[in-house]
Design brief:
Largest sheet: 9 strands, mixed
Number of strands: 18
Shape: globular
Helix content: 40-55%
CATH class of the largest domain: Alpha Beta
CATH superfamily of the largest domain: tm_1862 like domain
Radius of gyration: 23 Å
Strand order of the largest sheet: 14-15-13-12-11-10-9-6-16
Structural class: alpha/beta
Number of helices: 17
């Protein structure tokens, strides 16, 4: 697909919108006037006229409109383009013109500046968001707001990365190492990680920051031994000021890595929120996506965690997995609800660039889009009637059906870290390979990032460089308070 960008600088947003309609196409951006080669999307700002032409699938559409200097040319071009693409493809997008990761953040900002009624009207009439997604956005934003109000100027969260997994799932693009290939790296990795946690705590304590939430993710943190899990968690407990802590999460993730010894080590160290993620309860789908566990093993791990006394267990599901059907996804949702977890996140499959399924040239189809929409609708309905309500939401590129990921929780069991990281509410200090520290100026959109080395071997070999790099945290806060 050729995307022509003539006399304007709106390539990023228009490319994302084009990809939403043609997710399987490689998009080539052309910024010079040249003969049009179909399939194409042509956009131009000419004198006082906006022009859009689309040619694809043997169909042609064109729209134009005049504009004044005060008009939002990017928005008007996107609207013309959306209308042309909708006719060509014979469909609309549930989130309309919105292609960004954080639609709830936008809705909140509009509500705060223009009023809630005006925000709703803008989403519906200008951004062309569907009624169902507008309703979801309104409800999620109201629940999120209560969480955001807990954060203060000196608040921060801590993220710890454990970038190892038993195997790599076919939909995953995270930088994680399979244990078979990287087992020799685990001990030196944990040793260095403990040093980074201690150094990060020294910085946070010197700045008198308030630690609100801790999240240990990955990868699969429970690929570590019970001893190493205890070392990591206890290093956090003994070095940070934990007196303001509201939530401590560990993403146990894969049921095949969970043992009673590890769960006892986690629980005894004070971690109060556990995520056990089956993704599906269909054994054939689990095998197809590269998971080395069964639905029965998930049930066993979940029930063991409940028996041992975990008060908050979250489960993650993915709609649209290869081989899953609407009916089997419904069975998964019903199975999860029967277990009575405190929170559930329903993700929509995203065809990530570096995942195995993308490398295998799997295509996003209209039938698949329709099925995944049905899956989400069923999941949302069942969760709602079972006492859950949406508390955070985000989107990713190349999601099936151009849909979303939504976290649902019972009252009092929201995942606070999830909201803080997606809203970019306050500073996130991050430790471990692939982790990104995000320094946030409270009450503004200003954000600075410090990137850790991606791969465990880099992280281990070049830690001294990273240690120096993180001194920028102090520099940031010198002008902050």
């Amino acid at each position: 697909m050729n995307l022509y960008i003539i006399n304007h600088s709106f390539a990023y947003e228009l490319e994302n919108l084009t990809r939403a309609f043609f997710p399987n196409e490689k998009i080539k951006v052309i910024k010079e006037i040249s003969p049009l080669e179909a399939p194409f999307v042509y956009t131009e700002v000419s004198d006082k006229t906006l022009i859009v032409k689309v040619s694809a699938d043997g169909k042609n559409e064109a729209l134009s409109r005049d504009f004044s200097e005060s008009d939002d040319k990017e928005l008007f071009l996107a609207t013309l383009m959306y209308k042309c693409l909708s006719k060509i493809c014979n469909r609309t997008l549930p989130w309309g013109l919105l292609t960004g990761v954080r639609p709830i953040k936008l809705f909140r900002r509009l509500s705060d500046t223009e009023g809630r009624e005006s925000a709703e009207k803008y989403f519906k009439d200008t951004l062309l968001v569907s009624d169902s997604k507008l309703s979801l956005a309104k409800t999620t934003e109201a629940n999120e707001r209560k969480i955001l109000e807990l954060s203060q100027k000196d608040s921060f969260s801590l993220y710890i990365s454990i970038p190892f997994c038993p195997t790599r799932c076919n939909y995953c693009s995270f930088v994680s190492q399979s244990v078979e290939k990287a087992k020799h790296l685990i001990k030196p990795y944990v040793d260095i990680l403990l040093e980074e946690i201690k150094e990060t705590a020294e910085i946070a304590n010197a700045l008198k920051l308030r630690l609100e939430t801790v999240y240990i993710g990955g990868g699969t943190p429970t690929t570590l031994s019970a001893e190493d899990l205890s070392r990591v968690i206890n290093t956090v407990n003994s070095n940070f000021d934990m007196s303001y802590l509201r939530e401590f999460t560990i993403e146990a993730g894969r049921p095949d890595t969970i043992t009673e010894e590890k769960l006892r080590a986690i629980l005894s160290s004070g971690c109060d929120r556990l995520s056990i993620n089956p993704q599906t309860l269909n054994d054939k789908v689990l095998e197809a996506i590269g998971r080395k566990h069964t639905a029965e093993e998930f049930y066993s791990a979940f029930n063991l965690a409940k028996k041992l006394g975990f008060k908050h267990i979250n489960t993650d599901l993915i709609a649209g997995l290869d081989g899953d059907t609407t009916e089997s996804f419904k069975n998964t949702v019903d199975g999860i609800i029967t277990l009575n977890p405190e929170s559930v996140t329903i993700h929509t499959l995203s065809m990530k660039r570096s995942s195995f399924i993308t490398a295998e040239n799997k295509l996003i189809t209209e039938q698949g889009n329709s099925s995944v929409s049905d899956m989400l609708n069923f999941g949302y309905s069942r969760l709602s009637e079972s006492g859950f309500r949406p508390y955070y939401l985000y989107r990713q590129s190349k999601m099936l059906g151009n849909l979303e990921n939504t976290g649902w929780a019972k009252e009092g069991f929201d995942g606070l870290y999830n909201v803080y990281i997606m809203d970019e509410t306050h500073t996130i200090l991050a430790c471990g390979a692939g982790a990104v520290t995000k320094l946030k100026t409270f009450g503004s959109e200003h954000l600075e990032r410090i990137f850790n080395f991606k791969y465990p071997y880099e992280y281990i070999d070049r830690y001294s460089e990273l240690s120096q790099r993180k001194q920028a945290i102090c520099e940031f806060y010198k002008t902050y308070f």
